[in-house]
Design brief:
The chain is α/β, with parallel strands linked by helices. It contains 26 helices and 19 strands.
Length: 617
């Protein structure tokens, strides 16, 4: 694709951008975009990246670095760019989570980390919790600090540690133990963050190389950035002349418990002299839902602006309610029957109704799965692990993105979209010059012949565990493990690659075993035709036609109280995932209604209805 002049560039895939979004897109220098739910913040980043790439404001070989909080969000952003830009442009958009970004730098530049903090190549990622910190304190016979203080000191302490002070000495001995006293170094993501922060301070050559590579940096969901993460971004890019764009919504901040900054937006503006833009549209939800969202939003922040709802209502009946049940059995049975009624009447597709919970999705799965199964419906618990990786994370993995279109091509006679994606992936893995016709043709022929092989296997054999496993191995052999691991920094370490590869293989074989055809096995793999169940945290950034939250009582969600703003934020996140309808269920067997919340929402149109009446027709 030829480059266009900035003044001739227009957004792609959407009809319009609201005026402030348009201004923020064209603004020179760093910008901060704050906006409410469904306002198109992620879409804005995708448009802005496309603008930079298509107008040569970020000319080759320079790249854009985009940082998101969840793997599927990072993948989602990358795929929006892939749809709009030709491969040679899309390839210069690096979309990572914070953790993947820092870990990628560690894997590339580990050798440059100064002693004694340089970890061995064989390090293991750990997710230490209270028990692990308690063990450490006991082993060292430390009684003067508790596990929370220790954890927070490890996160807060920059390297190298100056050992003056009691806490400094304790943190130093923790690092020492994690780095030296095990067969392999044990590192948590906050520790990796600290190592990279240290590396960039010590090594100006690596820092300069990073700055030259990325003159443009995006951060999505900035409200959940922690102090440590922000320090890393500052260390890497402050004063470099890079144009940073941060987007976020402080009403959706739900990571304060993990150290998200309370004054992050101000600090970003100060550090990068960023211009602030505030957006006022909601493209996701219709006016009646937005009215209730506004009641919650103004409770969180009484100064918020009026929002313009741009979604259209397409359903009849209740659009927001609290469903009041007397016990758990009634709750699960009625929700199962109601969901089935909605799906079989054609109102909504199964994967477009989300079941959300605050915590413990596995427990809720046990209760609700049989009730859905009674109506021939299947539940997909996105938190369930296949091997060592949760399903939701696996679906956002690059390996999955490479393998799935190939499987789809194998299972169908024609599939133009999968063909285009697979071809683009092969071109990417081969790092093929788009101008080299000979090479391009060879890649195409290679893909054609491989698809023939896959079709042969899939036509001859109905789906079984064994054949699915054989297919997975064929995919890996053809795509080539080494190429995959070179192309995607996250897979450089064998252990990280194996975790994803193992999960892919396990899920594919399981889905094949349960499905009569290969197409159905692939649908099963991606969750098509299944009702997703996930925590509010995992629902961030996603949207569904209908959202049902289970457990809005004062015991199940005991922390939802007026003096805990983060909990209301979580409620806001859940509510705003809905395009058409948002329902919250309450079981009297568990607890009582959350009255203060109901009082807040009732005037805006949210009502409590007796759950039993839901399926009366
Ligand atoms: N300019 C636009 N025109 C039409 N639709 C849009 C526009 N911008 C975004 N959308 C659509 O609106 C929905 C919400 O967009 P997006 O997910 O980017 O919002 P967000 O601000 O990141 O949401 P949240 O913070 O609630 O997760 C998506 O379906 C997106 O495709």
């Amino acid at each position: 694709m030829t480059l266009v002049r900035p003044e001739d560039w227009y957004p792609q895939g959407v009809d319009e951008l609201e005026p402030k979004a348009w201004e923020a897109l064209k603004a020179a220098g760093s910008v901060l975009v704050t906006a409410g739910a469904g306002s198109g913040k992620t879409e804005f980043l995708a448009q802005k990246a496309t603008y930079f790439l298509q107008t040569a404001l970020c000319p080759s070989p320079k790249r854009i670095l985009a940082i998101s909080f969840k793997r599927d969000a990072a993948r989602n952003l990358a795929s929006r760019i892939e749809k709009r830009c030709p491969p040679d442009q899309a390839r210069r958009f690096d979309s990572y989570t914070f953790d993947a970004f820092a870990k990628g730098l560690l894997d590339r530049f580990r050798a440059a980390i100064p002693d004694p903090y340089r970890p061995s190549g064989e390090y293991r990622i750990i997710f230490p919790g209270r028990t692990e910190f308690e063990d450490f304190l006991q082993r060292r016979e430390i009684r003067s600090v508790n596990t929370k203080q220790l954890e927070s000191a490890i996160i807060r302490t920059r390297l190298p540690i100056r050992r003056n002070g009691r806490l400094g000495r304790i943190v130093q001995s923790y690092w020492q133990e994690q780095l030296e006293e095990n067969e392999e170094a044990l590192l948590s993501f906050p520790m990796i963050n600290r190592l990279i922060d240290y590396l960039l301070r010590e090594n100006s050559t690596i820092k300069r190389a990073l700055q030259l590579t990325y003159p443009v940096v995006f951060i999505d969901e900035f409200q959940d950035t922690t102090d440590t993460q922000f320090q890393l971004i500052r260390e890497a890019f402050e004063g470099s002349g890079a144009a940073l764009t941060a987007v976020g919504d402080d009403k959706q901040q739900i990571m304060a418990w993990a150290g998200a900054m309370h004054d992050g937006f101000e600090r970003f503006q100060d550090a990068f002299t960023a211009t602030h833009f505030s957006l006022v549209s909601n493209w996701r939800s219709h006016p009646e839902l937005v009215r209730i969202q506004q009641a919650i939003a103004s409770r969180i922040d009484p100064t918020i602006e009026e929002i313009e709802a741009r979604g259209t209502k397409t359903v009849a009946g209740h659009i927001a309610a609290i469903w009041d049940f007397s016990n758990r059995e009634e709750e699960a049975a009625t929700i199962g029957a109601w969901v089935s009624q909605e799906i079989f009447s054609g109102e909504v597709k199964p994967h477009n109704i989300a079941l959300l919970v605050r915590m413990k999705p596995n427990e809720v799965e046990e209760e609700i799965r049989p009730e859905l199964a009674r109506h021939g419906l299947r539940l997909r618990n996105e938190a369930r692990a296949v091997g060592d990786i949760p399903i939701q994370d696996l679906l956002g993995e690059d390996l999955t993105e490479i393998f799935l279109p190939l499987l789809r091509l194998g299972a169908s006679e024609r599939d133009a979209s999968s063909w285009n994606t697979a071809l683009r992936n092969f071109q990417y893995l081969e790092a093929a010059d788009p101008q080299n016709d000979f090479k391009q043709q060879a890649i195409q022929q290679n893909l054609e012949s491989f698809v023939r092989v896959l079709r042969g296997i899939m036509r001859r054999n109905p789906p079984t565990r064994e054949i699915a496993d054989e297919l997975a191995c064929q995919l890996l052999e053809k795509v080539d493990e080494d190429k995959l691991r070179q192309a995607f920094p996250f897979y450089r370490r064998q252990r990280d690659f194996d975790r994803v590869w193992g999960g892919f293989r396990q899920l594919l074989t399981k889905c094949a075993e349960q499905s009569p055809t290969w197409s159905q096995a692939i649908d099963e793999f991606v969750g098509y035709g299944q009702i997703p169940l996930m925590t509010i945290h995992k629902s961030k950034g996603l949207e569904f036609h209908t959202m049902i939250f289970l457990g809005l009582d004062n015991q199940s969600w005991w922390s939802l109280s007026p003096d805990k703003p983060q909990e209301l934020n979580a409620f806001f996140v859940a509510f705003t995932r809905a395009e058409q309808r948002a329902f919250f269920s309450l079981s009297r067997e568990h607890g009582r209604p959350v009255t203060w919340l109901e009082n807040l929402l009732e005037p805006a149109g949210m009502e409590r209805i007796h759950g039993g009446s839901l399926t009366e027709s």
